[in-house]
Amino acid sequence: MLPQRRPRKKGRVEIIPMIDVMLFLLVFFIMITLQMITDKGLKLDLPTSSETKVLPHPHFVLNIVKDGGVVVKGKKMSLDQLQNFLVGDGDAKHTQVTIAADKMVPFKDFVHVMDACQKAGVTSIGIAAKPA
């Protein structure tokens, strides 16, 4: 009498864990890529400083042009529009802003922009300068 063979089980490929891993990798690469996108700025003649430090990547770069106007993400804004823009962004206390002013901009314009940021609730403000 011949022994009976058991039917062979076919191997199964579980696809659900593979989908989970692929979605995790996709989200990971999207988050990394978003942090690598730089904010476009204007060509400004920044002042130099011997004590410059590299700042963390800010949420917004506020460019102050020679006529005193403020340009954010390619859009020119008044001080009231800037304040409303920063308030409308969400949690202003965690918003990081870097102010880049041309060296020919009067200091009063710089102070007005800084004042608008503080009125909006922004507490993390950096100042752009060229290393000496």
Features:
132 residues, alpha/beta, Nucleotidyltransferase, domain 5, 7 strands, 19% strand
Question: How would you explain this protein's 3D organization?
Answer:
There is one protein chain. The protein has 132 residues and is of the alpha/beta class. It has one domain (39-131): Nucleotidyltransferase, domain 5 (2-Layer Sandwich). Helix content is 34%, strand content 19%. The protein has helices at 16-36, 79-88, 107-120, and strands at 48-49, 60-64, 70-72, 75-77, 96-101, 124-127, 130-131. A 5-stranded mixed sheet has the order 4-3-2-5-6. A two-stranded parallel ribbon has the order 1-7. Helix 2 packs parallel to helix 3. The longest helix has 21 residues, at 16-36. The chain starts with 15 loop residues before the first helix and ends with a strand. The mean pLDDT is 81. Keywords: Cell membrane, Membrane, Protein transport, Transmembrane, Transmembrane helix, Transport. Belongs to the ExbD/TolR family. It is found in: Cell membrane. The chain crosses the membrane at residues 21-38. One of its GO terms (molecular function) is transmembrane transporter activity.
